[in-house]
Amino acid sequence: MKRIGIVCLTGLIALIVCGCQGRVKPDTNLIADDGRENRLVNLFGPMEKSKPNMENASRNAFDRTISIAEERLGLTVAYRTYTAENYTEKTYDDVTLDRARNNMDDLYLLNPDTIQILGEEGRLLDLSGLENTQNLRDVVKMANTVDGKLVAVPQEVVAYGLFVNKDMFDRYNLKLPDTPDDLMECCRIFKENGIETPIGANRWWLENFVFAMAYADLYNGDSTKAEIEALNRGEARYSDYMRPGFEYLKEMMDKEYIDAKAAFTYEAIDGEGPDFLAQKTPIVMAYWGAANAETAYGKPDFEMRVIGFPSHLGQMPVVALSGYGISVDAEHLEDTKDVLNTILSDEALRLYSEINKVISPSKNVEVDCIPALEPLNNKIQENVYVLGSNANMKMEQWGNICIVVRNLLNGATVDACMAEIDRLQEESMNK
Predict the structure, then answer these.
(1) What is the pLDDT of residues 123-172, one digit of tens each?
(2) Is 28 left (phi over 0), alpha (psi -120 to 50) or beta?
(3) What burial class does residue 120 get, using C-beta atoms within 10 Å of its C-beta: 0-12 exposed, 13-18 middle, 19+ buried?
(4) What is the pLDDT at residue 49?
(5) What are the residue ranges of helices labelled H in 4-104?
(6) Residue 13 clears pLDDT 60, i.e. is over it
(7) Please, what sign has the CA dihedral across residues 378, 183, 224, 431?
(8) DSSP-assigned letter for residue 137
(9) What's the Cα-to-Cα distance from 153 to each of 17, 106, 402, 419, 423, rounded to whole Å?
């Protein structure tokens, strides 16, 4: 669970958080920006405030929304963070938990597992009373609600999908896959035509195959709430939902459509990205913002499409949400609520989304996406998706399933993986 879902949270902020998932010394690396001598709100996140001339679209977008709040409310938001200089100590999540439990800040940027932990501990304020949370999409409210309380809200919805080289599909007269069988057949044809590894993978995101296959019906049917309650009570087993996805990944690995040994060592994008961009592999997986980022897949030399993961209901986006949470005992509680309410206004979220070209958490703000992202965006606008993180589920999803998939990459059997998921479910129920 000690990982940063690249989920994390929010488009390119997700990438920043992922880059900060290394280990650090919180006592020596914490940085607090100097603020004006007036009303203050302390924000803890993975990066300090943008410096002059620094080109970082995601931080600049966030800084600009914070500036709206500062000017409108007449206060200063002080950024508190750390520099990842030492990779032998605590993770970003570890440091965040330490600080939140000791009430060291007012506002926190949280990954899915920390949202769930701090929400269950009662350390996060219920944000449902903020005026602008009424504009949030249902997916946002569902994913970040703990014990009936909305405990965190993001500035963007992070959707994961398959990034495909459409030119390579066209070369072999292949249709972009909808179902697991479709994808398996595409991989067979690629392999027979000399493509060594049809799917480029890393050690973080293969879990999205599992979520898409496991939860297609759960999140796109009429019994979502009842099924989640049954899982939380132990009347249903997560392993029953997830076994088909694990069996599918195992078959992919056995047929060498996925290089398990390489994936086990690859970091997100850095590992499999070069082969995808060099057109040696036709398929990788990533999050929405990577299609816009020139440092990721924003400038390929081929026609790219981003589609959902295969499921029996067709292409299925996987949504993972982090978010901003307020300490229930925040020193500057009222000002912090006003700051968060301001950056959640449609005005601020529209600015943020226009700069970063991401999916807004507000149902009133539409995204103007690039053509490559239209297939994924169309599904989400139709409310077709599954959640990869859901604080309503007692067993944390994003981090736990990532680790179990890594066990599979490292040689564990599907039965062993299912036994581990059963153990994690039992452990979550005994908390």
Answers:
(1) 999 999 999 999 998 888 888 999 899 999 999 888 999 999 999 999 99
(2) alpha
(3) middle
(4) 54
(5) 11-19, 26-29, 57-73, 92-101
(6) no
(7) negative
(8) -
(9) 16, 15, 23, 33, 30
Query: Which residues is 362 bridged to in the sheet?
Result: 136
Contact 415, 239 (CB under 8 A): no
- CA-nearest of 174, 172, 156, 164 to 372 is 164
Task: Give the type of residue at 293.
Answer: A
Scanning 205-344, the segments in alpha helix (DSSP H) are: 207-219, 224-233, 238-254, 260-265, 273-277, 333-343
- Alpha-carbon distance of 284 to 277, in angstroms, equals 10
Pairing relation of β-strands 386-387 and 318-320? parallel
Q: Which long-range contacts (CB under 8 A, 24 or more apart) does 412-415 make?
A: 414/243, 414/246, 414/247, 414/250
pLDDT for the residue numbered 185: 97
Length of the chain counted residue by residue: 431
In this structure, what is the dihedral angle of CA atoms 23, 405, 208, 400, given to the nearest 10 degrees? Answer: -60
Tens of pLDDT, residues 100-134: 999 999 999 998 889 989 999 999 999 999 999 99
3-class DSSP assignment, residue 53: coil
pLDDT given for residue 91 in this prediction: 79
